[in-house]
Design brief:
Shape: globular
CATH topology: Tachylectin-2, Chain A
Distance between the termini: 27 Å
Number of strands: 23
Number of domains: 1
Radius of gyration: 17 Å
Number of helices: 1
Strand content: over 45%
CATH architecture: 5 Propeller
CATH superfamily: Glycosyl hydrolase domain, family 43
Strand order of the largest sheet: 2-3-4-6
Structural class: mainly beta
């Protein structure tokens, strides 16, 4: 068994399996030392208490199926939809823009396969961190158009076909990073911009709230956005971070005991990232 504090992970995503009394933790785990670069696998850790974890199991190997990407397998999310489990994961390859691909499996810890040859994000956009969202029965991928290409990162919504294999229409712009006044410039020594990361939806009094991550004065943080009409096409208002520590790329899940929990990684420093869970 592995202890939570022994697992280096970014973007931890939890699926609660109440029928079997366990959790499945996905995330960016194929990380290389001293960097955010990652290899080409997605894995899952099974746990019964969010503190002790079984050895990781690879659920997708990028060397199979003639898959287009060969590195930086980042931020997998797994969502149950129409009786199957769909993994949304970001990937990269030479000569290809970063993109979020969708994979499918009958179980949360089985072998996932791509639902389509190409990802639904635009081929000429640098994109990442796609999440799944259903509005009025219509499925969408909500994702980030990355700051490395457009400086002020945005969050957009792409409508999907019912089987999630095909994008329908063009992406719809929701908002940009600097719409939240807490966000400040970040990045590396050679390139900087305003970052949008990790959108995820939860519900408060029946209305969807989006959490997402960015930087403020060097600190990674979790922010909130809410549409005035409860729809993707509404006007988005922004709230600041609820937390004072360095951590982000969060999601919300329900514990086996029925408590609403948040999962994120902290601190946001290479080699030190760990999953953190607490009531939300």
């Amino acid at each position: 068994m592995l202890k939570r504090e022994d697992i280096r992970i970014r973007d931890p995503f939890i699926v609660t399996d109440k029928e079997n009394g366990c959790y499945y933790m996905y995330g960016t785990t194929a990380l290389k030392p001293d960097t955010l670069a990652a290899a080409n696998t997605f894995s899952v850790y099974k746990t019964y208490d969010l503190e002790n974890f079984e050895e990781p199991k690879v659920v997708f190997d990028g060397g199979k199926y003639g898959f287009w990407a060969d590195r930086d397998f980042w931020a997998p999310e797994v969502h149950k939809y129409n009786g199957k489990y769909y993994l949304f994961g970001s990937c990269k390859a030479d000569g290809r823009c970063r993109a979020t691909q969708i994979f499918v499996c009958d179980t949360p810890d089985g072998e996932f396969v791509p639902v389509s040859k190409n990802p639904p994000t635009p081929q000429d956009w640098e994109c990442l961190d796609g999440t799944f969202y259903v509005e009025d029965g219509v499925p969408y991928m909500v994702f980030c158009h990355e700051w490395v290409q457009i400086v002020d990162g945005t969050i957009c919504a792409q409508r999907l076909s019912e089987d999630l294999t095909t994008p329908i229409g063009e992406p719809v712009y929701l908002f940009k990073a600097t719409d939240n006044k807490e966000v400040t410039m970040a990045g590396g020594k050679t390139r900087q911009g305003y970052i949008t990361d990790g959108p995820f939806f939860y519900y408060e009094n029946g209305k969807p709230i989006m959490i997402w991550s960015s930087y403020s004065n060097g600190r990674y943080l979790v922010l909130e956005a809410e549409s005035d009409n409860g729809k993707l096409d509404g006007n988005w208002t922004h709230r600041g971070s609820k937390f004072t520590f360095d951590g982000g790329h969060a999601m919300i899940f329900e514990s086996l005991e029925g408590k609403r929990m948040i999962s994120l990684h902290s601190p946001n420093k290479a080699n030190l990232e760990r999953a953190v869970f607490f009531e939300f």
